Amino acid sequence: MPAMASKTISVCVAFFLIFVLLSQNTHSKSTHDQHDPFKFIQHLEGCHKGQNVSGLQELKKYLTKFGYLNYDHSKHANDEEFDDILESAIKSYQKSYHLKVTGTLDTTTGKQMMMPRCGVPDVVNGTRKGSKKHNHKHKSIHGVAHYEFFFPGPRRWSKTHLTYRFSSSVNQVPGTQNVRSICAQAFQRWAQVTSFTFEEVPATSAADITIGFHRGNHGDGSAFDGPRGTFAHANPPRGGNFHYDADERWSSNPGPNEVDLESVAVHEIGHLLGLNHNPDLPDAIMYPYFNYGSIKRNLHRDDIDGIRALYGLQ
């Protein structure tokens, strides 16, 4: 084969490979941007009791996942009927987030539900914020507090020196190369307002807390849902697991479609130490929803009051 022809073929092959790689990258970005596990809620806006609408089964799963709905094996748990139990669950959700309590999936409620968020339930063990059992406002020297503990009863660590390690089922997640130093900073934010000290230990060592990146069903009963939806979750004290969703776009300096590693770490460490979600204060670290591109790393006064009250430091 003439040298010129061989060179031309090589150039063509090189351009073809570049084209394929760019196409795959573009497709990956497109898939990431289009994927939204909460998008179905938009198509249900306006639904109300008495209706039978395709997609209501998914809404029931959403409200069950975050603790607002429990059918107790009712025949309506897996159907598309908007019944009394679903209406009551929506009202409880609306009360929690200080929305107009209609029991209808109105536009404002739907918009709130579609925001990306932490995967930890707002309601634990059937205790709903706003119910008589859980209608409490703590008092602090700074006024009315809104922080919440896990139920039943506050869960606490019995020691103040906690070890943590990193162990993931997914390797080489883009944007996470500095996650160890980032998590160290996040732990330090809580250490500064408590008696806790935190120490990273090798991945092969036993530790109080394990941090890792996972995707989909990863063995803890709380499967991740891909980009958007829920971005992380963690256990209350002595559970010790903090999981990031590996399918998110993570960053230490987030752009519009990226999630800030440290902001999420500070929130999830709050769960690890015993604080539950605080739906009252969007500025609090323990508020469950979080926007892409946002940075929220500093503890709110309410977060500090909550953790200090939980461990008797006030």
Write up this protein.
This protein is an alpha/beta fold. The chain has 2 domains: 39-113, PGBD-like superfamily/PGBD (Muramoyl-pentapeptide Carboxypeptidase, domain 1); 138-310, Collagenase (Catalytic Domain) (3-Layer(aba) Sandwich). The protein is built from 7 helices and 11 strands. It has a 5-stranded mixed beta sheet, with helices on one face. The protein has a two-stranded antiparallel sheet with strand order 1-2. Strands 3-11 form a two-stranded antiparallel sheet. The chain is globular and about 55 Å long. The N and C termini lie far apart (84 Å). Zn(2+) 1 binds at residues 218, 220, 233, 243. Keywords: Calcium, Glycoprotein, Hydrolase, Metal-binding, Metalloprotease, Protease, Signal, Zinc, Zymogen. This is Peptidase metallopeptidase domain-containing protein.
In short:
Its cofactor is Zn(2+); Ca(2+). Ca(2+) 3 binds at residues 225-226, 245, 248. The chain is of the alpha/beta class and 314 residues long.
Reported CATH architecture of the largest domain? 3-Layer(aba) Sandwich
Q: What is the structural class?
A: alpha/beta
Radius of gyration: 23 Å
Please trace the helix and strand order, writing H or E for each element. Answer: HHHHEEEEHEEEEEEHEH
Low-pLDDT sequence parts:
7-31, 127-137
Give the distance, in angstroms, between the N- and C-terminal Cα atoms: 84 Å
Average pLDDT value? 86
Q: CATH homologous superfamily of the largest domain?
A: Collagenase (Catalytic Domain)
Tell me about the largest β-sheet: 5 strands, mixed
Helix tally equals 7
Strand content: 5-15%
Number of domains: 2
> In one word, what is the shape?
globular
Strand order, sheet with most strands: 5-4-6-8-7
